[in-house]
Amino acid sequence: MSEAAQLGQVTIGMPVYNASRYVTEAIDSVFAQTVTDWRLVICDNGSTDDTVEVVKRYESDPRVSVVTSDTNRGLVYNFRRAFTEADTAFYMWLSDDDLLHPTYLERCLERLGQQRELIGVYTEASEIDQDGAQTGSFVDGPHPEHRIDANPAVRLREAITAEPALSFFGVYHTETLRRTDQLAPYVGSDRTLAGHLAMLGPILQVPEELFVRRTHPSSYSHAEFSNRRKFTSYSGFSPQWYRPIGVERIYRLAGLVHRSDLSIGDALRCHRVIFTTFAWLTVKTQLIMSLRFTSHWVSRATGRDVQLHRLLVAGAKRAGKVARLSGAKSP
């Protein structure tokens, strides 16, 4: 704890919107941290419930500040606005429905102090439902050790193929985040951010479940696919967001390679990873998203829980396993 304390403050940006049901637990988990030298910035995005009244109760603590908005300007705007308030050496985002174990900041800051080459640290996570019941562990990728590889291309491949929802909420050097675009108004910009950070430096995952990810019907991941109008109003994206997602990511990431201070060789290897990875990822993602939309409307029409996309993913995993076994048996 002493090493963590010596590193100074960390700013925690918490974007909130109609979060009165869960936000108290999220804020209390910050107050429960063993590291107390933090600043919490809560940015409300035009909530229509009593979220503002709930969060303002915490302003009696000088470490907490609340920023409000009269209108909902979208999720991306709110996350970016929270980051503009960062004035400390380290920064992290925390959703209004997720939780931190008491030693989360301590573990992350300790590793950042011990391994100066790291640009960020996050931990393993557990997952809970809307009632707080634990539903299992949340795994972001098969090879988290690749994120600390000396080769930027290896780090990049892991970052853009893994689930970014966990590393996104890690503790980072504020100046490193300022070199990125943070989030942008297109689908999958969190994955682009993960890729850019991977090119900028190694990111360590601490093998302890100190982060708690909550899933519930009103969360972003559910809202994303319910219908286009809800997605647009909730996230602040253009109504034309439903386009080949990989094309946007290729364009953005390819441009970011040259902002990552890489050697010519590393830059070329990163370009190859970007194009080869998203060539198949674009097709897969578009197909899965189309099936999720179809499942949504079929479910509404039939009154049954139809999830065609899950059948596709399960079939693909089974086919991949069979292929690997066949390859292992061949001479």
Q: What does it look like?
A:
The protein has helices spanning 2-6, 23-31, 51-56, 75-84, 104-114, 152-161, 174-178, 189-200, 220-226, 228-235, 245-257, 264-302, 308-329; strands spanning 10-16, 38-44, 64-67, 90-93, 99-100, 120-128, 134-138, 171-173, 203-214. Strand 2, helix 3 and strand 3 form a beta-alpha-beta unit. The radius of gyration is 20 Å and the shape is globular. It folds into two domains: 2-222, Spore Coat Polysaccharide Biosynthesis Protein SpsA, Chain A (Alpha-Beta Complex), CATH 3.90.550; 227-329, no CATH class. The protein is an alpha/beta fold and 331 residues long.
User: What gap, in angstroms, lies between the N and C termini?
Assistant: 54 Å
**CATH superfamily annotation of the largest domain:** Spore Coat Polysaccharide Biosynthesis Protein SpsA, Chain A
What percent strand? 15-25%
Unreliable stretches: 1-7, 224-234, 237-244, 320-331
What order do the helices and strands follow? HEHEHEHEEHEEHEHHEHHHHH
Helix content: 40-55%
> So, CATH architecture of the largest domain?
Alpha-Beta Complex
CATH domain class name of the largest domain: Alpha Beta
Which structural category fits the helices and strands? Answer: alpha/beta
Overall shape: it is globular
Biggest sheet descriptor: 9 strands, mixed
Number of helices: 13
* Average pLDDT reading: 82
Question: Could you give the count of β-strands?
Answer: 9
Indicate the radius of gyration in whole angstroms: 20 Å
Would you give the CATH topology of the largest domain?
Spore Coat Polysaccharide Biosynthesis Protein SpsA, Chain A
Domain tally: 2
